[in-house]
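User: Thanks for the earlier help. One more: Transposase-associated domain-containing protein. Can you show the sequence and predicted structure together?

Assistant: Of course, both are below.
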Amino acid sequence: MTIDKSCITLQNRRCPEFIKGLNSFIEIAKNHVDDEGKTCCPCIDCVNMFRHIVTTVYAHIHDRGFEDSYLIWIHHGEEYPPSHLDNLWASKYRSTRVVAEENPHEEMFNVIDDVMAEEDPHIENISQEATALDPEFDALFEEANTELYPG
């Protein structure tokens, strides 16, 4: 079965083709969840480095778009074609994936995911003040996302 991935490159994330492609992807993603019901998120920001519940993945992709380079959905059931160059790329990518999974902040992001999962991901136009949990928490969260050595 060939998977239509044309929605990945669409800029208009509100057009029917994008929504149809996103829904197709979500159906595939539902079959590739871990014990906690989370799957890799291929949005522009997460780039399959973080796992979220399926509704959060839907919201991320809808709001941010697909990572353009995620053409072979290896985290969602596809396998690499038997090509020497692809195998070289795969071994390099897997090694960076292992390093990313050892990120000590990953646990914090999982906790935040669990808290945020209770919110409706389809609600739009929420003011910044309504989403702030606590100024001290926000400062810690921003600090956790700041590069120690930029560049």
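User: Great, one quick takeaway?

Assistant: The chain has a mean pLDDT of 76.
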